[in-house]
Here is the input.
Amino acid sequence: MAIRNIVKVGDDVLRKICRTQLNFDEKLAILLDDMAETMYAAEGVGLAAPQVGILRRVCVVDIGDGLIELVNPVITEKSGEQIGNEGCLSVPERFEEVKRPMNVTVRAQDRNGNNFTISAEGFKARALCHEIDHLDGILYIDRL
Ligand code: NI
Here is the structure.
């Protein structure tokens, strides 16, 4: 595993639409391992592939209750509303209040290509929305 460099706001790579991950291979496993290590080293609660310069629909989230690896995630349901503080490892030393759904359901694939669904509320729902936004080139500061 290796800690990768986190791209900062202003870099075009954060503004691209990421491509679907089609290969569930060793390269994806290494990317996911590196992304988790990079997220933990930076004390973040989530990290998306474009933040390490990879334009693929891959992200990781851990709000403190375990690592979630998401490949090709899609929000299939959302409800309610919450306003809370949000930050981003690509936007250093800045935190702003952002409106997000209170509840989301996300469909994704794991590192082996198996489909799964996860439902989350509150801060976890916020983290999932934030990371999935990254895959479409959206930063939380766009939602202020
Ligand atoms: Ni972010």
User: Anything to note?
Assistant: Strands lie at 46-48, 58-61, 68-79, 82-88, 91-100, 103-109, 115-121. Residues 21 and 131 are 15 Å apart (CA to CA).
